[in-house]
Design a protein that fits this description.
319 residues, two-stranded antiparallel ribbon, 36% helix, two-stranded antiparallel sheet, mainly alpha
Length: 319
């Protein structure tokens, strides 16, 4: 009876009641805390993909939230937003471009019943849904549409290139049979679909025929090549440099398909993105130089704002 079982477990330690609960409470007291009250009126649902976006600036996130909270038809131009918020027009315009690049904003140009062309701002709460929107794309939204465009036929075959600037050309090409041809090579696309960048790119392509007659492009070929030229312009390449790169060393035997040749050059010779350059500080203003005067005492020339005595003569008189 004096021998004890050495394999018997020792007495179990008493469990401290509430230790896990204290740890959970300690974890929940760290960081941000919420004191939420359920909204019943005057509220807007904002997705976390906008409120917690990793690439948008805080100004763009706040401006996107404000635009989604506005009612239908409210003014959303830069002048109105500048009058509403303390930020200047340049910062608000930059924030609008950020929202447009990431699909939260779409700016279109539409024709009113009176025939005027006006700008329309569309705020998108889902960027993925905005990319698949059937309306005019950012590349062609700034082109005016005809007031009486015929509707395309229902049994028409799909267009090989959907970036058609106006409905009239889409309906015309849908009714007219086109000879099958190989599609054009793909061209690079810019990161931000800014309408002004695409207008400048289309102007570069339209000007190529002035330098070489065989570079006369059709309207559909220009629409296909415009994003490629816009990608060059976005990388801080001047229009003159783009024109030289596209027209230099053309084949002596001529071009059978100039649009395919230009598409290949735009993709093969795409320059790297421009390095970030800090704005140089403005040099200090030059100190204005006084006019030459003749000393009244010694007739020696010296610089002064008004006629009188030179420094030596003034010193001699004081002594």
């Amino acid at each position: 009876m004096g021998n004890q079982n050495p394999s018997a477990p020792p007495r179990a330690q008493a469990r401290v009641a509430g230790s896990n609960q204290q740890n959970r409470v300690h974890r929940t007291t760290r960081g941000l805390q919420h004191d939420n009250t359920r909204h019943t009126s005057r509220f807007t649902v904002i997705g976390n993909h906008l409120a917690q976006h990793r690439q948008l600036s805080l100004l763009a996130i706040g401006l996107g939230t404000h635009l989604q909270s506005l009612p239908q038809g409210a003014p959303a131009d830069i002048k109105t937003l500048t009058a509403r918020f303390p930020e200047g027009a340049a910062r608000i315009a930059a924030a609008l471009r950020e929202l447009e690049c990431h699909g939260y904003l779409r700016r279109e140009r539409v024709r009113t019943p009176s025939g005027r062309i006006v700008s329309r701002t569309v705020s998108c709460n889902q960027p993925a849904a905005a990319r698949s929107h059937p309306g005019p794309s950012p590349r062609t939204a700034d082109l005016p549409e005809p007031s009486a465009a015929p509707a395309p036929e229902a049994d028409a075959s799909p267009q090989p290139r959907p970036q058609q600037p106006c409905e009239e050309r889409e309906s015309r090409t849908a009714r007219e049979p086109r000879a099958s041809r190989r599609p054009l090579p793909a061209v690079p696309r810019p990161e931000c679909h800014v309408p002004g960048l695409f207008r400048a790119a289309a102007g570069v392509l339209a000007d190529l025929r002035r330098h070489d007659a065989q570079l006369l492009l059709s309207e559909s070929d220009t629409a296909h090549l415009t994003p490629g030229v816009a990608a060059w312009l976005e990388r801080d390449v001047t229009p003159a440099a783009v024109r030289r790169a596209l027209t230099a060393d053309l084949p002596p035997e001529g071009l059978r398909r100039p649009a395919a040749f230009l598409a290949h050059r735009l993709a093969a010779q795409l320059p790297p993105p421009a390095p970030y350059r800090e704005r140089a500080a403005a040099p200090p203003p030059a100190r204005p130089r006084s006019r030459m005067q003749n000393c009244d005492g010694c007739d020696r020339g010296f610089r002064a704002a008004e006629p009188g005595l030179c420094r030596e003569c003034r010193g001699g008189r004081t002594t």
